[in-house]
Amino acid sequence: MDLIDLRILDVIDIVLVAMLLYYIYKLVKGTAAINIFIGIVMIYLVWKLTQFLAMEMLSSVLGEFIGVGMFALIVVFQQEIRKFLLLIGSTNFGRRRSFLRQLKFIRDRPEDSLTDVASVIDACIKMGKTFTGALIVIKRNTSLDFVKTSGDTQDILIKTPILESIFYKNSPLHDGAMIIEDNRVVATRVILPVTNDRDIPLRFGLRHRAAVGITEKTDALALVLSEETGKLSYIKNGKFVMYETFEELIIKIKKDLV
Ligand SMILES: Nc1ncnc2c1ncn2[C@@H]1O[C@H](COP(=O)(O)OP(=O)(O)OP(=O)(O)O)[C@@H](O)[C@H]1O
């Protein structure tokens, strides 16, 4: 019986380690950190090999290095560790959230719990036609309180004309970002963290960099309207999401909000 238990635990152990390595790889893939990650994996494998071959001295040197290296790793991978914890947190919360939403849906008026994505996109289409710049952040699981404090607190039910009037060029609220939680505008004139990503084309300025920045640091979704081109960009997880039509975009956002 003990033997069977051990085997099952071993399998679970291996699956968990494989999942952990996969998630870490997914996070560092395409970043400069991938080379550091590969380097660490190689040192670890050599260390294990020296232990297996009983090469005492080399194994103890590498062992010491890996021991101290743990602290260095936390510093080097600060951003990635943050993202990783966020990923784990939001995976669980995601399910709980949709369950809570169901409950909320029963309790509250529906207009208060689900983001009216169609109205948001409708406002964006209209603003795009008049080359009005806009930056809209939609909260998912991660709290946005740390950025909200930089702007003005609001509590406004989402309606197309209201969103348009907020970003209207002469409006006192048009500057910075607007934050949406559920179906309400909860903050305006918010200053967002700007990304350091050098791969973003130069034609994108600070508004787009801020949208990439907040979606890198949190799981929020961002919509950016360019004042220069009137083009609407949808940004998720620090990346521009491609879409063909506005209908397709609405479906994508709704899916991302479930
Ligand atoms: N860190 C930030 N947080 C929130 N809003 C910002 C931030 N940086 C810039 N903005 C907003 O973006 C506006 C325009 O900035 P900028 O012209 O650099 O952006 P852009 O990406 O080139 O956009 P556009 O294509 O509309 O010109 C600013 O006036 C401000 O309202």
Automatic annotation (TrEMBL):
Domain spans labelled DAC: 78-248
Keywords: ATP-binding, Cell membrane, Membrane, Nucleotide-binding, Nucleotidyltransferase, Transferase, Transmembrane, Transmembrane helix
Record field: catalytic activity: 2 ATP = 3',3'-c-di-AMP + 2 diphosphate
EC number: 2.7.7.85
Enzyme class: transferase
Transmembrane portions of the chain: 6-25, 32-51, 57-77
UniProt key word Signal: no
Fe/B12 periplasmic-binding domain residues: 189-258
UniProt-listed InterPro entries: ABC_transptr_periplasmic_BD, C-di-AMP_synthase, CdaA, CdaA_N, DisA, DNA_integrity_DisA_N_sf, DNA_integrity_scan_DisA_N
Entry superkingdom: Bacteria
Function: Catalyzes the condensation of 2 ATP molecules into cyclic di-AMP (c-di-AMP), a second messenger used to regulate differing processes in different bacteria.
Subunit structure, interactors included: Probably a homodimer.
Family to which the UniProt record says this protein belongs: Belongs to the adenylate cyclase family. DacA/CdaA subfamily.
PANTHER family per record: DIADENYLATE CYCLASE
Annotated protein name in UniProt: Diadenylate cyclase
Organism: Aquimarina addita
Gene behind this protein: cdaA
